[in-house]
Amino acid sequence: MTSHHSQRLATIALTGRVLGVLYRHDPQSQDAAPLYATLADPSWAEQWPLQSSELAEIAQRMAAGIEHAGEPLSEAYQRLFIGPYALPAAPWGSVYLDKENVLFGDSMLELRQWMRENGIAHQLGQNEPDDHIGILLMLAAWLAEQGHQQRVDELLAWHLLPWAGRFLELFSEKSAHPFYQGLSDLTRLTLASWREALLVPVASKKLYY
Known about the structure:
60% of the residues lie in helices and 0% in strands. By secondary structure, it is mainly α. The longest helix has 26 residues, at 149-174.
């Protein structure tokens, strides 16, 4: 593998793991709390592997959101990802890709089939969809850590990028919290950079949500 490909995989491994944790774990959880402590200092933007003129401002917004007095971060996470009310932007792919807007739709079953075919162990409970934005970001990171460039590209092109842009658009518009609006922009920039080097064309899929 060339140094360029190795560098790309290392970047996906780092950025995918960071973003995945932010979408997947409550800010007060053991898995996430140290990361939020780091993000409270906006200078992290200087070390982010994918540089952009927008990064410094995004980092400032996210840091301000961590201290947001109007709605504590943990409460915002509950509102955006857990419920009990309807989530402002569903974080599961099949809600966008299935015309019935259901969980465990055909696109999620296709993802599970792809995981089985590639020997990717199923770590989740059977009652939890695999196509959660946080799970897919962390799976991309894990595959990158293993050096599986082809599988990283297939996961992104077939199972994440076809719907992620629509999710991020809704998430940015409806999250109503500076940290999560910043996270949406950081994710958008990061996925755009990942996409530039894809060796597999992104699947064209109709969105229903």
